[in-house]
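3.2 Worked example (two chains)
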Amino acid sequence: MDNPKNQFDNEPVDIMKIYRNIRSKLKGINPSDIPNIDLYMDQVTTFMDEHLTYYKRKEEDKILTKTMINNYAKANLMPSPEKKKYSKDHLALMIMIYYLKNVLSISDITTLMENVTDKHFNNQEGPNLVDIYSYLYTSSPKVADRVDKDIEKICNIVDNQIADNEAIAESRDFIILADLAVDITLKKRLLEEYIDRLAEKKEAALEEEKKQKEEAERLLKEIEKSNKKSAKKGTV
């Protein structure tokens, strides 16, 4: 006996429609919605879960947990809270980490964000992390527009290439999605390569600092040794 046919088997899957539906629902956290008061950890996880709930693939998925927050601090990715409370800059940082960790490891995010966090976290004299996040939030619609055009362009290219090949045309959606996967892979490797170079630059700077420190210590010892000889001669 044949298996009953799913009612959706003959319905075409519109990739562009799926993307635009996702885009219409995926709303980032407006910087103005970040509370002006410091929050305890439970309040932070609740805030993130309420504002980013549609980013969950499954209902049971977690946007942010206490363990994640503690791990960020252990990895030196995020400054410790003040009296167990997290500031607006803490929240802005955790929002940015949430987006980045979809494609990067915590170690890579730490390397990427180290200078930004050191320079802008709770900065009172210039842009702080909320300001940095605000720029990203403002530019996100343009990014979404660009992605929309890129996906549409890939769909059109694939359609033109397979127009005269009915056998291949049956795998149209797979080919489009595979093309998107290649695109994501290349961009991910760009991020990783850039981060690796940042790490190498930092390691070289630390090595140079170590050499300079060792040289300074060596010179100091020579000076002390020379002073002891001079003192010894003076007592003879």
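3.2.1 Second chain
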Amino acid sequence: MDLKTDLMKKMDFEEYLRDRKGKIDSLVADFIPKNAASEGGLFEAVRYSVMSGGKRIRPILMGETFGLFFDGKDEEALSLLSIFQAAIEFIHSYSLVHDDLPAMDDDEFRRGKKTTHAEFGEALAILAGDTMLNYAYELVAMALGNSHGDDRVVRAFSALSQKAGILGMTGGQGLDIFLDGYLDKDGISTEEKKKLLLEMISGKTCALFEASMMCGAYLGGASAGEAKDMETLGHYLGLAFQLRDDILDIEQDRKIGKKTYVTVMGEDEATAALGHSLDEALSIIIKYSHMQHSYMQHSCTEFFSAFLSYLKERVM
């Protein structure tokens, strides 16, 4: 199948991502509580964290998946989508703030800016993370109320909460901490290391990709089987995203002794795993290539095949 489209042209697609990022930036800014007390700096720490210049990949993927299944008729669904897009960004931002803390990765900079704890202190950074996670669920509760318990929202909420928790992202973070010392022990086979590292990525990174696509699918009206396919696609996109990150960061990670799939398994093995992830993702994209985005005005093949090329070729 020929998957080349106008969106696959590198500059066109990167411009499309920048445009979608700008819209998500505005959306997230609109959802930051306006009446929060500013005394003590907590509100400023939250704003600083969630508006720190991320790529907004997760809510973009949610919107594209929503558009794949949305029939264009239910305006309420668009409002619900916006709430969940904001919610997943608050969850993602909280996870980065806590991940950067001295007790975890102890990073002073992220995306060229001081991390939240470096800018506001460790105590406020912890509280900012707690606040963003809690606020994400406040937003979803609002969606549940606005929809009068719509089953689409219940399913999306279930997916989001599970993927953000111990069976997903936080579980992956916990495994990451455990592996930092465990992988240096004698007698651990290469296959066990590979299995554990992939399990860590599956939780720490893939889970929110999966949540994004499952939420988009459910809110757009997908069946349980279709949402499952989107979960699988999200898994392989998240895996490819993290492997590409690790390949790009290999020299810096080696200098600081950071355990990643690439520093442990080697760049050749990571490149092979990246290729496998992209192939698996493509097989699902082809399965849905007949579907047209009535909401986005482009096909599933156009966006997601372009996104695969972006993951394969991105350099930062």
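3.3 Remarks
DSSP finds 14 helices and two strands in the chain.
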